[in-house]
TrEMBL record:
InterPro entries: Enoyl-ACP_Rdtase_NADH, NAD(P)-bd_dom_sf, SDR_fam. GO terms for molecular function: enoyl-[acyl-carrier-protein] reductase (NADH) activity. Belongs to the short-chain dehydrogenases/reductases (SDR) family. FabI subfamily. Substrate binds at A100. NAD(+) binds at G16, S22, I23, D69, V70, V97, K167, I196, R197, T198, L199, A200. This is Enoyl-[acyl-carrier-protein] reductase [NADH]. Pathway: Lipid metabolism. Its EC number is 1.3.1.9.
């Protein structure tokens, strides 16, 4: 069959696999299926162990596991130097990383601390800029960067607070990066995923209520899942989306269109 995705033997960095439920893991599995090489980055040793265990079922595929703490410029620089040296060109990056202090999600928004605000921004929004900068020397012609956002970037959602502000910054950073890197044929887009039960989602206090609301209100009358987000991410990484950059694409059963 014609290779319409053109991801075979391409090198894609997947950041943010913590366990099987991670959105990034769903994407990595699909990348293996379409023949890409997957370079995983992790922050905690615990995640490294988990990723290596999960990879036991994927020994026929080319992969690597590299440490990268997005709060540290040194760690990011080291990670991308290592990846660049080992793999040569980078054809895709999946940025699926976010973090905020639990208190800043639980408390009322006006109580957000200066430190908590800066930390959420640093980890969840600036990290996309920092990663693009460190990866730039290795990014191939036609490379695609995809980040994970959420509807809380543009609407006030209960319990999302400081993370909503960080996602707004992330989406704006995505657009500025798209404008900046477009001349070099590097694309940058965001996926705005519907609510999915993951480790990160555990930090959002009203998560169950959010899931119920989506089932009731979304055009498709159901929640979206890891695989659906992964499929669209594959499209955004692939040749099929070569004319698209600077966009936020909703994979949310249509929930965002409803009043
Ligand atoms: P997850 O907890 O599985 O993934 C979050 C990842 O971020 C983890 O692997 C964690 O290790 C990593 N991370 C946090 N701080 C880091 C740091 N300093 N350096 C490196 N890595 C760090 O949860 P997920 O739901 O798969 O989240 C992935 C992305 O998807 C996040 O950006 C999240 O905001 C976004 N998202 C999630 C949902 C949802 O409902 N689950 C919806 C929309 C968007």
């Amino acid at each position: 069959m014609m290779d319409i995705l053109q991801l075979k033997d391409k090198n894609v960095v997947v950041m943010g696999v913590a366990n099987e439920r991670s959105i990034a893991w769903g994407i990595a599995k699909k990348l293996f299926e379409v023949g890409a090489n997957v370079i995983f980055t992790y922050r905690k040793e615990r995640s490294k162990g988990k990723i290596e265990k999960m990879l036991a079922d994927y020994t026929d595929y080319k992969s690597a596991v590299v440490e990268c703490d997005v709060n540290s410029d040194d760690s990011i620089a080291q990670a991308f130097e290592q990846i660049g040296t080992q793999f040569g060109a980078i054809h895709g990056i999946v940025h699926s990383v976010a973090f905020a202090h639990a208190d800043d999600l639980k408390n009322r928004f006006h109580e957000t601390s200066r430190e908590g605000y800066a930390f959420a921004q640093d980890t969840s929004a600036y990290s996309l800029v920092a990663v693009s900068k460190a990866a730039k020397p290795y990014l191939a012609d036609g490379a695609s960067i995809v980040t994970m956002s959420y509807l809380g970037a543009e609407r006030v959602l209960d319990g999302y607070n400081v993370m909503g502000v960080a996602k707004a910054a992330l989406e704006a950073a995505m657009r500025y990066l798209a404008a900046d890197l477009g001349a070099e044929n590097i694309r940058v887009n965001a996926i705005s995923a519907g609510a999915i039960r993951t480790l990160a989602a555990k930090g959002v206090p009203s998560f169950n209520q959010i899931l119920r609301q989506i089932e009731e209100k979304a055009p498709l009358k159901r929640n979206t899942n890891q695989e659906e987000v992964a499929d669209m991410t594959i499209v955004m990484l692939s040749h099929l989306s070569r004319g698209v950059t600077g966009e936020t694409i909703y994979i949310d059963s249509g929930y965002n269109i409803m009043g």
